[in-house]
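Translate sequence into structure tokens.
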Amino acid sequence: MSESHLPIRATIREDVRAAMDRDPAATSRWVVLFTSAGLHAIWLHRIAHRWWQDPLRRWPARVLAYLSRAVTGVEIHPAAHIGRRFFIDHGMGVVIGETSVIGDDVMLYHGVTLGGTSGKRIKRHPTLGDNVMVGAGAKILGDVHVGNNVRVGANSVVVKDVPTGAVATGVPAVARYPQLGNGSVPVEEAMYADPALLI
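Result follows.
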């Protein structure tokens, strides 16, 4: 996981490119640039996170995070560590807690919560590896680790670690390694049995 320390313009270009790559409805860079609430939320978070590093600027960081939530519908604590090319599709209702750590090339859909399960001042929010996709409405709760290249199904609730390369679905989520389209199980049949396998 590498937190972005690129110049602002380079970061914006990288994020817009990531949004264009991941969102089939994104047909114009200008439309994405000016109308993507998910991108606006991460850009405002990056400013707030830099301010958060200076104890004297933590209040302004919290105020900026509050204003960002009001405008975008996405709540990200300024202390959360977020990697490069992060994208939130649709945005509304996403919550990312204070001690969350998010890797590179991660995508969240609307309604996702990276929440805490402890009232103590400890690492109490999830860590997501690189190239993770979290489906709409999913909750990842507590100091759990989600490995690289993981998919979390829509509306799943993750309360245990998920190993690299797995798909986690259900309440509570169970990690598995589906072999879709390999001839043993038709894709349509697998989707009918567990629609969250294809997020």
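Note: The radius of gyration is 17 Å.
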